[in-house]
Amino acid sequence: MAPDWTPTPALRRALIVVLVLCVGAVVTGRVDLAVLAAPFVLGTATALGSRPRGRPTVTLVVERSRLTEGERLTAHVAIDAIDHAAPLDLVVVRREPEAWWAGQQRTSVATSVRGRAELTFEGEALRWGRHTIAPVRALAFTCDALLEGQPVASEPVPVAVFPRSEPFEADETMPTAAGLVGVHRSRRYGDGGELAGIRQFAPGDRLRRIDWRASLRTRQLHVAQTFSDRDAELVLILDVLHEVALDGPSSRPWSGGHRDVGQSGGSASVTDTTVRAAAGITQHYAERGDRVRLLEYGGRNRALRAGTGRRHVLTVLEWLLAVSPGEGPHDPSDNFLRRHTLPHAALIVVLTPLVDRRSVALLARLARSGRSVVAVDTLPTGARPPRTSAWSDAAFGLWRLQRQNTVAQLLAHGVPVVRWSGAGSLDLVLRDITRMAAGRR
After folding, report:
1. How does strand 417-419 pair with strand 72-80?
2. Which domain holds residue 197?
3. Is 367 within 8 Å of 414 (Cβ atoms)?
């Protein structure tokens, strides 16, 4: 086992100077050389007399281990000297730079410790996911920098950074619903909070529905007719077969309705847009009483049961942290609809970049089954493959034409494709789907 403290070059130089002066005094018989050596001997002996009995300890703690993209992350480093009577003259603390954590302070800090010292590192959490703050390492010097301690490190600290919910608000009603309890207006009449009109009283009408103003004016009993409030089930399918990014896998958090580019490694990728859009849509519908279910169309084909309320939103955010793009050993399109039973009354929103034929085939199968399907385009604007030859531009142009044909074919199958743009992205589409559902009934 290595010793706790080892000599520094300064101690070696002091010993060499003392040895040379003492040998010279003995050989030459000069007393002045011994007098010159005395301060070095006394100073070194006095400094080494306050040698610590053990290594210092380093502890890393964070104020919040669960936060959202764009929020401030504050980490505190506590340095404790084992022997409080022996101060540490210099302690150099260094932390490894994190790509997902943009700190404004330097990664290396030097300080002196007398008993206990605390340092603070602050920065902005840039990237959603489950991260780990690397151990903070400290190198201490004591005894007037004559002894150097062995490097000590803190324990790594896990941090969960939740995706920032994209601003989303859908004002349109859901096309279909499964129950008679909820906040979405139905196309059918029933008990609810939104007025549909006034009609004459009929047998079976409740007395509390009588509109006395209209009854007194017409001399006949009239009742207020309302639309029934119904809850709905929403199924979000996250297409993560492929990752597409403009200039890097990392991205800035959403800020003010646009994404910053170039300051932290790139713009939002397909996975970034998919995860943040899923978080926003879930928060909007689940907090209004609708049931939201998530499915992952990728390598692992994970699924999250349907739920509602604030607790379910937190569960969804935890589930989204594990989203990883890429293909697995099995084709996700094999028996996807058989493994996951999707109710016919549910609205299915597929977040997809439309770069894989299997995703397009899944949308077509869902539409042919009679379900209400909406495809949300998550491909970054301006994304294109690198130019590798003189034919790259022509090939990319053909691919764009093919993708436009695919979107037109999906629309012909009854699957509208809209680009994700935050608030109100699905209003027009939901309005059209609602009218189509009402026409089918």
Report:
1. unpaired
2. 184-230
3. yes
